[in-house]
Write a structure and sequence with these properties.
698 residues; Catalase HpII,  Chain A, domain 1; Rossmann fold; 10-stranded antiparallel β-sheet; 19 helices; globular; binds CIS-heme D hydroxychlorin gamma-spirolactone 17R, 18S
Amino acid sequence: MPKTKTPAANGAGKSTRAAPSTTVGNGGEWHQQADGDTLSTNQGLAISDNQNSLRASPRGPTQLEDFILREKITHFDHERIPERIVHARGTGVHGFFELTASLADVTTANILTEVGQQTPLFARFSTVAGGSGSADTPRDVRGFAVKMYTQQGNWDLVGNNIPVFFIQDAIKFPDLIHAVKMEPDRGFPQAASAHDTFWDFISLTPESMHMVMWAMSDRTLPRSLRMMEGFGIHSFRLLDAEGKSTFVKFHWRPKLGLQSTIWDEAVKIAGADSDFHRRDMFDAISNGDFPEWELAVQLFTQEQADALPFDHLDPTKLIPEETIPLKVIGRMVLNRWPGNFFAETEQVAFCPSHIVPGIDFSNDPLLQGRLFSYLDTQLSRLGSPNFHQLPINAPKCPFANHQRDGHMQMEQPKGRVAYEPNSLSADGPRESASGFRSMASEENGTKGRIRAESFSDHYSQARQFYLSQTVHEQAHMASALVFELSKVEHPHIRAAMVGHLRHIDAKLAKRVAGGLGMDSLPEAPPIAATVQDLEPSPALQIIGKMKDTLAGRSVGVLVADGSDRATIAALAKAIKQAGARHKIIAPHIGEVTLSDQSRLAVDGQLAGTPSVLFDAVAIVLSAEAATALIREAAAVDFVRDAFGHLKAIAADAGARALLDKAGVVKDAGVQDAAETGLFVQAASTRQWQRETTVRTLS
Ligand code: HDE
């Protein structure tokens, strides 16, 4: 007999839900899961044979009557929903937000005033341009979206890992995205901005220059989702009980510090493990290494805003933290992997319009457009105005209204009253004095399709960003521009871009022009506002924000039969003590026999586990094994790439032949494997001083 499955009671009664919960990550209680062990149809009918469809005879035609086959195949045929138009590729994790400093003096939002309160949340990190099956490591902006299930409703902070955006007005978004996505006639390139249509649009859109500088920096090549910053980008408002407004910008700062990969590394990671970031997050959560971010705010008044040398409502501008410092107010901890990828990561519906009392929007025209777009996209993506009923989207506080029916209505609202005001339902939902209020701002002026004068400076912050970088980061940006523009087939687009660069930095323009084989510098376009020489902001660097630590990182230890057991054990201990993990890589999977005849389990086979997957490497080999491995390209590349990607290398004497073959030259990052302390210290950063020996920086 089939076991009957009883849907949980969340459909019964009024449109209200359980009392708010502040416990960590208690989302996703699924009522439709089979709770029995008998395989059944969706109607609860037990299935006796799941291997054979119903046939007229053993070799005859399949019967239309086979409703079990039809139900199963029909459901399968409809398994996919439209992927997100942008940010299709994403990784989601549950966690919580804990407030550590109250903002009660400027806002009534409960989540920002109750110190110590933990609010459950779901965070989703994404790339922008690629489809849902694309690789994790293209050069791309990363989405950083956080849905906080507060006691006053859901608050979605839908940001990116870069604090500015390409365009100033929402009406340009479809153009930008069409330009960066695969070209419509040929269907490629996937997940790449290095093509004509993207650079054509950019070269004709000077307002994008600041963001382009960020996009060409290593910010778009994060080492891990756990090692990137998040930004709300737009100015928002905080409102106190009197309705007084303070502007705010939100920043997430990773506890592990910022870290990025090097372009060559990112390209190779895409081949070695296209799920690199998702797997990294999955492994961290599974190992109990819960990633953490600080939430910090920049608070400022209208008067402070008016004194800035640009308009803070322009989303192509940021406020340097040297100008308005960051105040840390809380922390986000991610600690639970979703129970089901589709149900949660795919169906989560973020909307910047999901906001709570005490927080409000600014007039940033990009934000204003977003307030429309996200609800609209969820309707087409999730197919129903009832998407808020999906457990991942439902508020965890009580909610009730008179909205009814619609596709896939899961609730059964009772009673004859579905309107308000009413006199027939005394206990029905009513407006509340503590409900959401918009700021009573005064708006006047001339209606029109007008771009404010104050939005016309497109180069000053692009210049400031470039000049704030270290020489290494500047060189990476120049190389990125050369790489991207060299993929552009139309010379006039390349020329136009280099023309823009002349307004940002003359040396950068020359460098890129040289890399593109241009004989002379193309003309710079006319500009609407004089380029200002803004004070450099070191806080905009990645290198400046890296932490000297191996914590949360991973080390690949290359071994073979005959490797020295004591050396491997000492390295493993030191790596663990530093808060990192190690993986044993060997020419074959299974086990290797070490110098003392003990056996060691292997985590990864050499050809399938290149050094790009690690932050540092150790090579522990007998002289005999090293000599054999110099004929293996995978072994030589393992070492050569680690060296070229500026990673620390620990090696024992036996490994020498392989190091020589890979062209490794002794430097501060190349340590004797026995010197575990020195190795861990070197591995706590990249070997920037080595860079000039492996690539041209000028
Ligand atoms: Fe989005 N964006 N966006 N965006 N965006 C979407 O909503 C849109 C913008 C961001 O993990 C879509 O659910 C417009 C800025 C993230 O599910 C869509 C404009 C920032 C995510 C949409 C912008 C973002 C999205 C596609 C210009 C950084 C992924 C699917 C006005 C502050 C959220 C969806 C997730 C997703 C529209 C600009 C961040 C189409 C019209 C600026 C992190 O609604």
